[in-house]
Every structure is written in C-alpha cells, then in structure tokens.
Amino acid sequence: MAEAVMGRKVIRGQKPPSRWAQFKATMGAWGFMGPATVLVLVFFFLPVVILFVISLTDLSSSNFSDPLTFVGLNNYVRLFRDRFFPKILGNTFFYVAVTLSCFNVGMALLLALLTTHINRRAGFFFRLIWLLPRITPSVIYILMWRRISHQPPFGLINQLLAPFGVEPQYWLFEQPWLFVILVNGFVGASFGLILFSSAIEAIPRDLITAAKVDGASTWQSIRDIVLPMIRWPLLFVTTYQTLSLLTSFEYILLLTEGGPGLYTTEVWALTAYKRALKTYFGHNQWGYGAAWGFVLVIIGIAMSIIYLRVFRFNELVQEPKIDVL
Amino acid sequence: MTTATFESGSQSGVKRFLGRTLPYVLLVLSISPIVLGYAWLIIATFSYRTEGLFPIDAAGNIGGWTLSNWSFLTDPAIWRVTLNSFVLAVGMVIGVGFVSSMAAYSLSRMNFAGRKGFLSLTLLLHAFPSVTLLIAIFFVLNFLSKIPAIGAWFGYNTLGGVALVMISLDLPLGIWLMKGFFDNLSWDMERAALIDGASRFRVWWEIIIPLIKPGLAALAIFNFLSGWSAFLIPFTFTVGSKVANLPVYMRQMISDTAPTNWNMIAAVGMFQLIPVLIFFIFTQEMLLSVYAGGSKGGT
C-alpha cells in the first residue's frame, strides 16, 4: 500500500506535503467531522459500553440512587433460566422466519415481478401504494389495523367476510400472530420491493425476449434468468431484514404489547425494552433488561460486520478527488 | 422447441386475457388492506361512529356525517403537541442536514487520518440496529440532565434530548446519503476556489452546499417525516403531556381507561397525516429512492 502511494507520487512528480501541512489538513478535516464524531461517540459508543456495564449489575428502580452492585453474569444466567425464555425464543424465531419469508422477501419478490411485468406507470403506482405503510406514522398505521381486526360490529374483516358465512370474531384476539405478521410484513415488504424491482428493471430486455423466442415459459424465464440476475439484492435484503426484524418491536408494542395473555406475541427485543423501560408496575429492572438487550447488540455488531465483508462495502470507500492542499 | 414456439405464438384469447389481467387482479388484492385502512380512517373522521366501513348515526342507521370529531382543534393541548411535533421535525431537518453534510463533505473530499475508519464505521452503524441501544441511551440522557444549563434543554424528558437522540441515530444514514451526492459532484469549481485561496469552510458553505440542494432537500423531507411521525423515542424518553408529540398524544388517547372515542382519534390521525400525505403526493419518486437507499427504520 505504502509503495503504491509512493509510486503515484513519483509519477505525478509532486513533493510529499510537509508533516505540518498534513497535520493542519487533518485537523481541518476533523473540524468538519467534529459534530458527527461527538454525537456518534455519545449516542452509539458510550451506550454500548453502558449497556454492557449495566447488564453486569442489579440496577433497578428500587436501588437507583445506591452505588452500583456488580453481580457478574447473574443476569445472563437468570435470562436463560427465565420461565418464559423458551416461549420468547420460540416466538422470536417464528416471528422473524415467517415475516421474512412471507413478506419481506417472498411478497416483495412476487410484487416486484408483478409490477415490472405490467405497464410501467401502473407498476410505479402499485409500488407507491406499498410504500404508504412505511411512511404512515406508526400510531395511525396500527390504529387502522386495530379497526380492521376489531370485534363485531366494528371490525372491517367481519363485515367483509359476513357474506361468505364466516363467524364474526375479535380477530386480533383470536389470531394475534396473524396480525403481528401482517402489520410488520406490510411495512417490511416495500424495502425488498423497491430494491428488487430496480434490479429486475436493470436486466436487459433482450435476454428475456430471447428466452421467450426459444419457447421458455414465464416461470422458466423467472427461474433461469431473473432470479440468478438478482441474487445479490436477494441475499442482501434477506440478511438485512433478518437483523431489522430481530431487533424491531415498535409495531408489536403498539399492536399487542406482547399479549394477549402472557407472552403470546412477546419477542426478544420487546422483552428487553419492557423489562428495562416500560414495566407495568413501574419497577424497571435495568440490569436484567440490559442483559436481554446486550445479546441483541452482540448479534447486531456481528451481523453488521458480516455485511461489511460479504457485501464488500469497503469497495465503496473510494479515494477522495482532491488531495490535501 | 419448434412446437413450443408454435404454442406460444397461438395463445388462445382467454389465456392471453388472463396473462394481461391476472397481475392487476393480484396487485389490487395485495393493496386492499392498505386501501381499506385508509378508507376507514377517512370515513371515521367525518362520521358519528362506524361499523365496518359504514358510518352509523345515533339511531343506528347508515349516515350520520359530522364534523364534531374535529372539535379537538379547539383544545389548546393539541396545539402544544402539534408544536412539539413540528419542533422535533424541524430539529431533525436542521440537525441531520447540517451535521451530516459537513461530515460527508470531508469524507468525500479530504484525505485525513482516520477517514477510511470513519467511513467503514458509518456503514457499520448504518446496518447496526440502533433501537437496541435505547436502554443505555436512557442513562446517557439521565446523565445529561444533571449537567447545568445543558440539562434543562437536552436531558431526559426534554424535547431537545429527544431531538438529539433522533438526530444521532439518523446520522449514519444521513452521512451515507450525502456522501453519495458529494461524490457525484464535479470538483472543478471547488478546486478553482481553493487555489484562489478560499478556506475549506467557505468553499463548503458558498459553493458546495448550493450545488447539492436537491440532495439536501431529499434528506430534509425524509427527516421531516421521521421527526414528525416519531413515536418510539419520544414515548420512551418523555413523561407526561408537556413534551409529548402528536403520536405519543394519540397513543395516550387510545390506551386511556375511559371508553375510547375512535372517531375522534381517527380525526387526530387525519390531522397528523396531512403533511405526510402532502409530501407523499408531491415527492413520490424521491421518496421511493430515499427509502431504498436509506433502508433505515421500521422493519
């Protein structure tokens, strides 16, 4: 690396800048970087450290003002021994796997194929409508779904299914998982949809036309041409959305708060949040909640590093156009 | 093979008709929950109460259109939370716009020690799920509360604190987007100005910023919407109604122990949706591209 830099300098015939000039330029650059650096340190780095330290203590709202008592890895042991641990773990896997396969990737791919197949403007229109759930403020979005799945006589589903002889019921209570997945899936699908459809539109038309001329069916041309050509976006969306689903809980919090009943739709991220910050009786177990949260942070860091390596984000890091003056 | 070609050449009319219309049928079906949800919201806003999609009047017959749900507009409380929402949104626009365009400029144009490190870090943080840090940020804000002068504005349970957290968590996305815009900019003018002896800051402010107005506008709209609609962070770091924003206020209305007035809530929701829908209608293409490049937030 050093040799390459030196080689370039020789070709250009420039004197290497003096140490003082280099230092001054670096300081100037960090002046621009200053605000961002401070905020990133205070709100990303510090929290990771704090979270880890707190997860080793028994800090809770009952001993907030006392000095910290370190309890070692007790919170982590307690986490795995929690009576509801298997339930929460199962819920988390179920939620991530089903939402991801049915909506964030499955539905997104299906919609991308459909919207690129039809008239361009119509396809754009449908993609736009699918963006609405993401852009609608979460509270209003959940309000809509709660009315859709509400008890008779208010619920929209009951009214729509009544002519088909379906027994009216309180859908959100009877089928909480169905709605947790629908609510998150309708938001999540748009991300994959946008990426997939722009990838599909980038495939040369000739390829598909040639296949059609050779007698390939629609299904064959999708399987043998489209899918292989968009495998990178597919892989990216799959891994990226796995992580977002694993750590997101806003919509579940608003829709069911983990209920109805005990831990019916409670996922890992929601458990961490509720234990530490929003307990029913105002007894916040920060230490214990932090242990739940820190496990997710570790997974998050590991997976982000994997993206950096697998998707070669580093290649995007190009040299600046103007050298230090 | 020849037979296959022959077959696809002589598709029957019914089959071709199906091939044309089936995608539309599927797509219309797929958006039906979204359309239904919005339809209910609009109908409920202007009706006494609703059963399914039908407005119902006091006697139980279909009808009963009313504007009474909008009476919340005369309540001073709603204007305070609206102002809070607006301040948060504008704070996001200015904060993220300013900080990230400065950082992105230097990442795109200057060569300094730590540049590559910071750039990979930005990418890493962009992928990192920041909601997992909320528990620890609670302690950061609590600590900020104890600092005199700063605490009153940026501590726990202040609008400034919420804004600061939201700005910071959005920075990786902002820096990344802005760097893309800077990278695409020709640097001739900039180089000329630098050679003429202008300072870096002057070049940034007087030459570069005007050139990337479209990029800044895109980022501003994105941030305005996320500040305006923010629920989780204000909900977590504020207590009581003094610093609540619109979504938190709505949530309080929904989970009140008193019987919920759904139609009034729908009206508040419609009120909150006005700026969102305006941006949605007038900046569609830009939103589609930012949400694809952005990929942050929600699921």
Written description of the protein model:
- The complex is a heterodimer of chains A (325) and B (299).
- Chain A is 71% helix and 0% strand.
- By secondary structure, chain A is mainly alpha-helical.
- In chain A, helix 5 packs across helix 9 and helix 9 packs antiparallel against helix 12.
- The N terminus of chain A is likely disordered.
- Chain B folds into 2 domains: 55 residues, no CATH class; 220 residues, Orthogonal Bundle (MetI-like fold).
- A two-stranded antiparallel ribbon of chain B has the order 1-2.
- In chain B, helix 3 packs antiparallel against helix 10, helix 7 runs antiparallel to helix 10 and helix 12 runs antiparallel to helix 13.
- The interface between A and B is large, with 119 and 109 residues.
Largest interface: A-B, 119 and 109 residues
The separation of the N and C termini of chain B measures 45 Å
- Name the helicity range of chain B: over 70%
| Broad structural category of chain B | mainly alpha
Biggest sheet overview of chain B: 2 strands, antiparallel
What is the topological layout?
The complex is a heterodimer of chains A (325) and B (299).
Chain A: H1 2-12, H2 19-55, H3 74-81, H4 85-117, H5 120-135, H6 138-148, H7 156-161, H8 171-174, H9 176-201, H10 205-213, H11 218-229, H12 231-247, H13 250-255, H14 268-276, H15 286-310
Helix pairs in contact in A: 2-15, 3-15, 4-5, 4-9, 4-12, 5-9, 9-12, 10-11, 12-15, 14-15
Chain B: H1 2-9, H2 13-45, E1 49-51, E2 54-56, H3 76-109, H4 115-127, H5 134-146, H6 150-154, H7 159-183, H8 188-195, H9 200-211, H10 213-229, H11 232-237, H12 246-254, H13 262-282, H14 284-294
Antiparallel strand pairs in B: 1-2
Helix pairs in contact in B: 2-13, 3-7, 3-10, 4-7, 7-10, 8-9, 10-13, 10-14, 12-13
